[in-house]
Design goal:
Layout: H1 4-7, H2 11-21, H3 24-31, H4 38-48, E1 67-69, E2 72-74, E3 78-80, H5 86-89, H6 93-104, E4 108-110, H7 118-125, E5 129-133, H8 139-151, E6 156-160, H9 170-174, H10 185-191, H11 197-201, H12 209-217, H13 221-231, H14 238-247, E7 251-257, H15 260-268, E8 273-276, H16 290-301, E9 306-309, H17 316-324, E10 329-332, H18 334-366, H19 371-375
Parallel strand pairs: 3-10, 4-5, 5-6, 6-7, 7-8, 8-9, 9-10
Antiparallel strand pairs: 1-2
The structure holds ligand FNR.
The site of ligand FNR has 22 residues, from helix 3.
Length: 383
């Protein structure tokens, strides 16, 4: 049997294989950023610039990667970030990711615009399922979504705040895939072999089932897009967050925070987690690099909420970098989808293995026996 660790020793190897294996427009959707992709690229260069000083003769035998977040134990401080239309990259991608997450003991955050429902993914993810919410405009629909997510066993709700307006995604457009302008023929042809995508995507809310039926009768994804535009509020307010806080009993996280002022306000409204992210460089090309703003946000939050980090994480080393800059937990978006696109379920497992193995290696170098001691590093050195 081929050894995946030899075939794909790094996330870049999974990405190279994915690029060959999936349709061009699906690759462009997954891999691209927005505008000139400056923020996407600086996510990497800024992470590379964080140096960690090794320490030896400390007798660390077997680093413990486990950590606790929102009262749940996770086997490593790395999770799978929400990626819309994962089923476009590979049929059943969401179920594969949920399965890898459950077996690996790390969180999988299902996107609102995924190809599977919370009812399908929740049980598959076991205790590891989170749900990312793009906010429904209608309060009834919102409550219905929250109930469905809760009944599916998911206890962490992530409100994404950094998509007040769809970004231009020039590379995606060049490939023929344009969400705003409807969906190209090429994409429709691809989706035709993924039954249920359209209905599953427009899946929210009994209150609007009639609307969904109307749109799906049209049997085109432009209808699904219209459903989303008509019923979802891209730019929610602080009052919206307040309402969500009152209605959701589980942990509540806001995703896409880049300014300490926003972090502070969210904390006063009672959120449990601040997710520092520039959406992997997909939203606003002048946005600061997430790792650069992380220390200041962590300082402002000062332990009153958990700090979650993403944008550019490709190695276990990057996880160590983010933890040393103030994060409690990291997520990665593209890497797990590169894995699924390269080698299905085994590829998702391999992406997680790469992160875990590299993290273990790095902790040996740093002489840090556990996650708490990594977080205690000051400017990359033992205090
Ligand atoms: C995303 N991301 C995202 N975020 C979110 O809250 N809801 C979503 O539906 C999506 N969809 C999505 C699709 C694709 C193709 C990508 C690559 C990303 C952002 C994602 O959750 C995460 O913030 C970034 O992917 C992190 O950057 P890296 O790890 O990809 O560098």
């Amino acid at each position: 049997m081929e050894n995946l660790d030899d075939l794909y020793p790094s996330i870049s190897d999974l990405a190279a294989k994915a690029r060959k294996r999936i349709p061009h427009f699906a690759w462009e959707y997954l891999d691209s950023g927005t505008t000139e992709e400056v923020s996407m690229h600086t996510n990497r260069t800024a992470l590379d610039a964080v140096k960690l000083t090794p320490r030896f003769l400390k007798g660390v035998q077997k680093p413990d990667l486990s950590t606790t977040l929102f009262g749940q134990r996770y086997e490593a401080p790395i999770g799978m970030a929400p990626v819309g239309m994962s089923g476009l990259m590979w049929p059943g991608a969401e179920m594969m990711l949920a399965d890898t997450a459950r077996r690996g003991g790390v969180p999988y955050c299902l996107s609102t615009v995924a190809a599977k429902t919370p009812e399908e993914v929740g049980p598959a993810a076991g205790d590891m399922g989170w749900f990312q919410m793009y906010p429904p405009k209608d309060a009834e629909v919102r409550r219905d979504v929250l109930k469905r997510v809760w009944d599916s066993g998911m206890r962490v709700l992530v409100l994404t705040i950094d998509v007040p307006f769809p970004s231009r995604r020039e590379r995606q457009r060049r490939s023929g895939l344009s969400i705003q302008a409807g969906v190209s023929r090429q994409m429709l042809a691809h989706i035709a072999v993924r039954p249920g995508w359209a209905l599953a995507t427009a899946r929210h809310g009994k209150a609007t089932l009639a609307t969904i039926a109307k749109y799906s009768e049209a049997q085109d994804l432009e209808g699904v897009r219209r459903y989303f535009v008509d019923h979802y509020n891209h730019n929610p307010s602080w009052d919206y967050l307040k309402a969500l806080r009152e209605e959701w009993d589980g942990a509540l996280v806001i995703k896409g925070v880049l300014d300490p002022v926003d972090a502070e306000q969210a904390i006063t409204l009672g959120v449990d987690g601040i997710w520092v992210s520039n959406h992997g460089g997909r939203q606003f090309d002048a946005a600061p690099t997430a790792i650069d703003v992380l220390p200041q946000i962590a300082q402002t939050v000062a332990g009153r909420a958990a700090i979650i980090f993403d944008s550019g994480i490709r190695t276990g080393l990057d996880i160590l970098r983010a933890l040393s800059c103030g994060a409690d937990f990291c997520f990665a978006g593209r890497p797990f989808l590169y894995g699924v696109s390269a080698a299905g379920q085994a590829g998702a497992d391999q992406a997680l293995h790469i992160f875990r193995d590299d993290l273990t290696n790095g902790m040996h170098q740093l002489g840090t026996p556990d996650i708490v001691s990594v977080q205690a590093l000051e400017n990359g050195r033992h205090p």
